Automatic annotation (TrEMBL):
Organism from which the protein derives: Anaeramoeba flamelloides
Record lineage: Eukaryota, Metamonada, Anaeramoebidae, Anaeramoeba
Protein name, as recorded: V-type proton atpase subunit h
GO CC terms of this entry: vacuolar proton-transporting V-type ATPase, V1 domain
One Pfam short name: V-ATPase_H_C
Entry-linked SUPFAM superfamilies: ARM repeat
Length: 489
C-alpha cells in the first residue's frame, strides 16, 4: 500500500450523528413537532400522508407499488430485511418514480422515505451502485435538483415549512449515494461544484444551509475532501464560520466546524490550511497580521464554549489534527489558546474531550516556551554573545521560528552572518551551526545565504585549527549544497 493510499484509508471515518427512526408513520406524531426544526416538523407531516398510489402506478411497475404499500405496515426490522434483500430493486424504482412524478406531495413523500431509509440502513445507498445504470440514475437525480417542482415553494403552504424541502432532501440523498461507492470522477466533481455553488449563493440562505448539511455527508470520503478543497471550498467555509461566530449562530457554527473537522483528516489539506487568511478568503500576506482558522476557533471557544459542548468537542478534535503542522502551533499560542483552554479545563468534560483538551494545552504550553525562547535568541544574536545552549540544538525551535528570520528584510540573519567574521572561534562555530539550520529548514534558505555571500567565509573554516569550528563549517556547507538533508541524515 502506498503512502497516499494508507493516508486515505486512515482518514475515513464513520460520522457520529444520531439517525432518525426508519420510515414508519406510527413513530412520528404531532406531539413531538414542537421540539423539532421547521423542516423536521414538516417531515413529520409528510410521513403521515396517505398517498394515492394509483397515481404512482402510472409511472412504475405495479409490483413495486404493491411492495411499497406492504412495506409501510412492516416493523422496523422487517423493513430492514426487505431493503437488504431487494435494495437494487427499490433503488431503481425510487429514482424512476421521483424522476417521472410531477405531483409535489408524492415527490416529498418519496424523498422523505428514501432519505429516512438511507439514514437508518446506510447499506441501502450502496444498492444504487449495484445497478448497471447507476451513473444514469445519479444524473437523473441531479437534473431534478433544478426542476421547478423541487426548487420552488407553493403559494398555499407557508414558506418556512415547504420552501426548499425537496431540494434539501434530494441533494443529501445524492451525497449519500456518492459516498457509498465509486462513481465517474466527472460526476463527483460536477456534484461537488453544485454544492460549492450552493454555499456561495449569498442570495439564498436556504441553499447555503442545505449545502453545509450536504457537506457533512459528502466530506466523509477523502476523495470528496480533496475535490472540495482544490475548488476553493474551504475558503468559503472559513468565511461562513467567521460570520456565524460573530452572530453566535450556534447551529451553523457546529455544522461548519463539522465540515472543517472532516477536512482536517487529510494531511495534504491540513498543510495548506495555514496558507489562507479568513477575512476575504485570500492567501496570507506576510506583511500583514495573519488570521487563520485557528484564530476563529479560539474566538468561538472564548465566546460560546459554555453553551454548546458539542462545538467544543469538534473544535478541540480539529485542533488535534492541525497540531504540529506548519505554523499551527505558533498560531495556537498567538490566538491565546493557553488561557482559553485553561478556563475550559475547569469544567467537567467527558473522557475523549478532556483528552483532546489536555493534548492541545500541552502543545500550546510547550510552544509558548519556544516563542519566549525566540526573544532570548534575538537578544543573544544581537548582543554578539553567542553561547552553546538548548535553543541552538532544538529542532522544534527552528521549525516554529524559521519564518521570523524574514522580518525586517532578514535583519537578524544578516547579523548572524556578520558573526562569521568574529575573532572568537566558538562564536563562529555557533554562527555556522545556526546558518546551517536556516539553510536546511527555510524553503529558500540556500539561495538567501548565497545572496548574503556567507558561503565563501564558511568554506574558509574547513581547514581551521579549531576542530569544532571545522566540524560545524563542514556540516553547514553540506546543508547548503544538499537537498533533502534530513532524510539523508
Amino acid at each position: 500500500m502506498s503512502d497516499s493510499e494508507e493516508e486515505n484509508k486512515e482518514s475515513e471515518y464513520n460520522i457520529f450523528t444520531i439517525p432518525p427512526p426508519v420510515f414508519q408513520k406510527k413513530l412520528f406524531t404531532s406531539v413531538y413537532s414542537k421540539h423539532l426544526s421547521a423542516e423536521d416538523a414538516y417531515a413529520v407531516k409528510v410521513r403521515e400522508r396517505h398517498i394515492k398510489w394509483n397515481v404512482v402506478d402510472e409511472f412504475i411497475d405495479g409490483d413495486f407499488v404493491a411492495r411499497l404499500r406492504d412495506f409501510e405496515s412492516k416493523t422496523i426490522e422487517e423493513q430492514r430485511t426487505i431493503i437488504l434483500d431487494f435494495g437494487p430493486l427499490f433503488a431503481n424504482a425510487f429514482v424512476q418514480c421521483i424522476h417521472s412524478v410531477t405531483a409535489r406531495n408524492i415527490i416529498e413523500y418519496l424523498l422523505t422515505m428514501l432519505n429516512d431509509l438511507m439514514i437508518e440502513i446506510p447499506s441501502f445507498a450502496y444498492s444504487f451502485h449495484e445497478l448497471q445504470n447507476s451513473e444514469q440514475l445519479i444524473e437523473l437525480l441531479r437534473g431534478k435538483l433544478h426542476a421547478k417542482a423541487v426548487s420552488s415553494g407553493e403559494e398555499k403552504v407557508p414558506k418556512k415549512q415547504r420552501l426548499y424541502y425537496c431540494y434539501n432532501l434530494l441533494i443529501k440523498i445524492i451525497a449519500r449515494i456518492l459516498v457509498a461507492g465509486e462513481v465517474n470522477p466527472d460526476i463527483a466533481k460536477q456534484f461537488t461544484m453544485d454544492v460549492i455553488r450552493m454555499i456561495n449563493d449569498i442570495s439564498s440562505k436556504h441553499k447555503i444551509k442545505a449545502g453545509i448539511k450536504t457537506l457533512m455527508i459528502l466530506l466523509q470520503k477523502d476523495k470528496h475532501r480533496l475535490l472540495f478543497f482544490k475548488n476553493r471550498g474551504f475558503e468559503r467555509l472559513a468565511a461562513l464560520l467567521n460570520a456565524a461566530g460573530k452572530k453566535t449562530d450556534l447551529q451553523s457554527i457546529y455544522q461548519i466546524t463539522f465540515c472543517i473537522w472532516s477536512l482536517s483528516f487529510n494531511k495534504r489539506i491540513v498543510k495548506k490550511l495555514n496558507d489562507f487568511e479568513i477575512e476575504g478568503g485570500r492567501r496570507k500576506n506576510q506583511r500583514t497580521k495573519r488570521r487563520t482558522i485557528i484564530f476563529v476557533f479560539a474566538e468561538i471557544l472564548k465566546s460560546n464554549a459554555k453553551t454548546k459542548e458539542k462545538i467544543v468537542r469538534l473544535i478541540l478534535s480539529t485542533l488535534v489534527n492541525l497540531a504540529n503542522i506548519g505554523n499551527n502551533n505558533s498560531d495556537m499560542v498567538e490566538a491565546d489558546l493557553l488561557r482559553i483552554l485553561g478556563s475550559l479545563s475547569q469544567r467537567n468534560w467527558e473522557k475523549q474531550l478532556k483528552s483532546d483538551l489536555d493534548t492541545i494545552y500541552q502543545i500550546v504550553h510547550e510552544n509558548l516556551h519556544v516563542l519566549r525562547s525566540w526573544d532570548k535568541y534575538v537578544e543573544e544574536v544581537t548582543s554578539g554573545e553567542l553561547t552553546w545552549g538548548p535553543i541552538h540544538k532544538s529542532s522544534l525551535f527552528w521549525r516554529e521560528n524559521i519564518g521570523k528570520f524574514e522580518e525586517k528584510d532578514f535583519r537578524l540573519l544578516r547579523v548572524l552572518v556578520s558573526h562569521l567574521w568574529n575573532s572568537d572561534s566558538t562564536i563562529q562555530a555557533i554562527a555556522c551551526h545556526d546558518l546551517g539550520e536556516f539553510a536546511k529548514i527555510h524553503p529558500r534558505g540556500k539561495d538567501i545565504l548565497s545572496s548574503l555571500e556567507a558561503k565563501g567565509k564558511i568554506m574558509s573554516f574547513l581547514n581551521h585549527q579549531d576542530l569544532k569550528l571545522q566540524h560545524e563549517a563542514l556540516f553547514c556547507i553540506q546543508k547548503m549544497l544538499v537537498s533533502g538533508w534530513s532524510s539523508m541524515k
